[in-house]
Amino acid sequence: MEQQLAQAQAQAENQEKIKAAEEKRQAMMRAVLSNEARERLGRIATVKPERARQVEELLLQAIQRGQLAPPVSEDTLKSVLSQLSEKGEGSQPTVTFHRKVAADDDW
Predict the structure, then answer these.
(1) 19-42 CB burial, b ≥16 within 10 A, e <16
(2) What does pLDDT average to in each consecutive run of 10 residues of the chain (107 residues)?
């Protein structure tokens, strides 16, 4: 019983830490993005949350290194997105067609 209580407390603490880290991250993004860029990133997050997270990390790293100066405009965000899509071109899904041979046709 005590062990379960301790596990529940540990889980609650972990969830609080995760929530606090996420709030801090959101506050940083609000501080460094212009309104238009924040809206665009929000639309991206609706469709592809992992992609938005990747862009956020990249922007924060670039700002910390001094490569970008806040506030980040929508045009800057677009260029970052295009750079990411160029890098990830190999991960694009491919479509392959398997067509029946004429002798195999059951019609």
Answers:
(1) eeeeeeeeeebeebbbeebbebbe
(2) 85 91 88 91 92 90 87 89 75 75 62
